Amino acid sequence: MMTTFSYLGLLYQVLPEVIVVAAALCALSVDLIFLRTAELRLRVFVGAALSLAGCIAAVAWILHDPQVVNDFDGMLILNLVVQRVQIALLVLTMLTVLIFIGSTFTQHVSEYLGLILLATTSMMFLVGTQNLLVIFLSLELLSLSLYVLTAFNKRSVRSAEAALKYFIFGGISAAFLLFGFSFLYGLTNSTNLVGIAGGIHGSPLDPLLIVAMVMTLVGLGFKVAAVPFHFWAPDVYQGAPAPSAAFIASGSKVAGFFIFYQVMALGLAGAEGSSIWHGYTSGWVPVVATVAALSMVLGNLVAIMQSSVRRLLAYSAIAHGGYMLLGILSHTDQSLSALLYYAITYALTVVGAFGVVALVEDATGGDTLADFAGLSRRAPVPSFCMLIFLLSLAGIPPLAGFFGKFYLFSMALTSTPGILGLLWLVILAIAMSAVSLYYYLKVLKYIYVADPATDAEPMRVPILRQVVLCLIAVGVVLLGCAPNLLLRWL
Amino acid sequence: MLAWTIYISFVGAFVLMLLPKRAVRMARILALLTAIAGFAVTLEGFVQQQTGELATITRVSWVPSLGVEYHLAVDGISLTLLLLTGIVAIAGVLFSWNIEHRSKEFFAFYLALIGGVYGVFLSFDLLLLFIFYEIAIIPKYFLIAIWGSTRREYAAMKLALYSFVGSAMVLVGLIAAYVVAGAKTMDLVQLAQFPFPVHFQMWVFPLVFVGFGILAGLWPFHTWAPTGHVAAPTAASMLLAGVVMKLGAYGCLRVAMMLFPRGLDAWGFHVLGFGSWREVFALLALIGIVYGAMVALVQRDFKFVIGYSSVSHMGFVLLGLMTLQQIGLDGAVLQMFSHGILAGLLFAVVGRMVYDRTHTRDLTALEKMDLSKAIPFAAATFVLAGMASIGLPGFSGFVAELQVLIGAWRAFPLFAVIAGVGIVIGIAYTWRAMQKAFFGTADHGAIVTASPLPPISVPERIGAALLLGASITVGLYPQVLLRVIVPALHSPLFDGLWKGSGR
To answer: Among all residues of chain B, which has the CA nearest to that of A409?
Structure first.
């Protein structure tokens, strides 16, 4: 088969990834060779500048030379959608790096940035493939980077504990995923998603296929923190350094959902089944529907009880994962576009929210609700940004979160033409988002209504951080008011 | 031109946020100017609009892939409510002249709320309408939670959650309608002409009606209203009772009844004596009228009296809608206007004129203060507002409630009689509150208020005159509004409502 094989050609096709890796190496070597004795601020600044430059160069290259590629039986797939998701991932990485500037939790600046860039590379590979092997490899590279990023605050016990938890859960779920993948390969003799779909098409549901499906679902469900595979999320969100948490909650979510969609909708096409009301047939759709319903209910209800804002964001992330699963189980082209719109705007919002949480932690040393008391008097601009982020998460128009929900839910209903088959899930989702307003408003109540502690002074917020937060907030408002800006891309 | 009401309000809110913290006076004046500008634009639109028929203001494609448009249009019903919003907005700023605590934020939230309300009344795209409807929720929360009084955080959260649950129900109905129509459009005019299957309308109609009805104070989902009104600062109470409750009623009419008219048809069977949603909601409205009035009769807190009276008066709006008679619907829309003005005025008297001076709303405490001597202007205003509110001829309440009652008499004679009883109880509670609060039997000389109460200020006088003037104008010459309301209700949009089976 492989008569002509050009490594140079391959490198050219994955040039954006190569650029990002090169940026990671540059950041590492510059920091370790030239800046060993420089002060921390300078090292952070130089490292961040190099990382940003790498990401910008990669985005510029993708925009400059868009490619349509399908190499080696689906191992490398590039098309418009994939490349746009890659751009979104790079932008999210840049925002994470920008939020990292000014952090003091670590001395190992370049290692931290290098890992973030490596994780970004793996995400870019992850979304650019339809092959089980490459999916697994990229997922592992991503997960390993994320474990280390979680543990990076060596002064915090929580950080280490969270990383260990994440690692153990992640290891087990990777085993499940690999097991599932090997079954899929055994059943269909193909590692290509399209090939797998061809192999299982038409045959009735084989018990082996069911095992493979469930195993795969466990592995991917862990990646997107869906109930009941969500146990790592609250601890990681709480323990990890703020930029790592933001990264895990944003970029890795987008990539995870994209590949989840690919595996289910492409690879297991033909084994969907159906979860419409009174029209249940077995397949992966009813499983995903159950997981989605559980995530929405549990995530939202448990979030109500939280007093730590990070844990609250974690449970709300589980709930949002539940909404996004609706996009997967309706698996039409339009629902992919709705899913991506939702995932990207959600990721953007969450990065911003963690940016504010990081600020508050720097000033007060904690992330409980009480630490946010009277924030609007101490730091008006970040408070207003947080207002926008949380309201967007709650789905209040005209912010991006509302339009995302509307689009996602209406596409879920459209996916069963003629009957409103998924209405029960949509009703559940909307009802649960009404619940979510309660806990988001609770945070905002502390920020805007509660009085600050008597000894509290106005907070000193670095200009750069304010600018980044405002940029994200403007993005959230803009994407909500003019969703077309993003929609015509997806 | 009318679209500028929305933009002016939001720009005003934005500019206010940028003001320095100390510029209290500037914030007030800016807010007042913004409110006046909004009103002026509305008035100009009202004068220009001779017929009350549907006129498009702006229509541009917004999200082409979903067929959502930025479509603003106006008809007689919207015009009436826009006018109401403009008047109450100005009065609200005037009655908040004494706000010193975080005043620029107060007025920023206030104007954002006003902007959302204008937006709802002008939207003719279903999604756009919903967006403005939800925009109005958040400022309400902060207005109450930050500047409110009695149990403000509880009341604010309750209000926000009730509103949000209501809008969640509306959202379900809206998405379902969008998908079922399958025409990739959210245009109200087009959707109103789409023949939704009857069995679909039968479940969507009550869902959407209750969703909006929650905000209109539909019994038994009204409980946010009294607590919210009582906790809110004066201007927010005025807006809540004056215009926000009208958002709900407007939604019931404009969305639920206009899009899903067959939902009002007879079911074809009877459950507990009910044969259609129409009867169910008419009964709920009736219970609201009588229950609200009876509860108002036994309140000790002055503001709770007005809070429950709002539930009672909004019952007339909903009852009027359910009559499905021309005269009943005219009355309902007129009652929206009338109650908006009068509730605003009553809350202004209680919250600003009385409470801010005496620092109590307890009727037994007020009884001893001899307020009719101390602040005669407040007493006179309350007497007039009370007279208007119980429906004496010459005020707007009379024309509105009379029309509703006539409509109800034709549709449900028994209900009309009971609603009449509700009016009588209304006289009783207004009388009782007036008696106790202003004309109490003070033991003369025994308790002389330590320091004389500050006199009624000029802004308060202007605000009161504005609201009373509006009520009397409509009361003496209702045609000024009816000439635009009647043609609007006869437009093709409401054809389904008039032509439904069995009507």
So the answer is: B175
Chain B residues with beta carbon closer than 8 angstroms to that of A441: 141, 157, 160
- Kindly provide the ipTM of the predicted complex, given to two decimals: 0.88
| Below-50 pLDDT ranges, chain B | 446, 501-502
3-state secondary structure of A251: helix
Interface of A with B (CB under 8 A): 384, 391, 396-398, 402-403, 406-407, 409-410, 413-414, 420, 423, 426-427, 430-431, 433-434, 437-438, 441, 445, 448-449, 482-484, 487-488
What is the identity of the amino acid at B442?
A
Helices A132-150 & A251-261, crossing angle to 10 degrees? 160
Question: Residue A233 in 3-state DSSP?
Answer: helix
Give chain A's radius of gyration (CA, Å). 22
Of B63, B157, B176, the CB nearest to A413: B176
Q: What is the CA radius of gyration of chain B?
A: 22
**pLDDT tens track for A180-238:** 999 989 888 888 888 888 888 766 778 888 888 899 999 999 989 998 889 999 999 99
Whether residue B64 lies within 8 A of chain A, CB to CB, comes out as yes
Contact B58, B115 (CB under 8 A): no
| pLDDT, averaged across chain B | 87
pTM: 0.91
Beta-carbon-side half-sphere exposure of residue B295 (alpha carbons within 13 Å): 20
C-alpha B353/C-alpha B370 separation (Å) is 14
Residue ranges in chain A whose pLDDT is less than 50: 1
How many Å separate Cα B269 from the centre of its chain? 35
Whole-angstrom distance, CA of residue B258 vs CA of residue B453: 51
Chain B nearest CA to A371, separation (Å): 18
Beta bridge partner(s), residue B301:
B362
Residue A352 confidence (pLDDT): 94
Tens digits of per-residue pLDDT, A228-239? 889 999 999 999
Backbone phi, psi, residue B187, to 5°: -65, 125
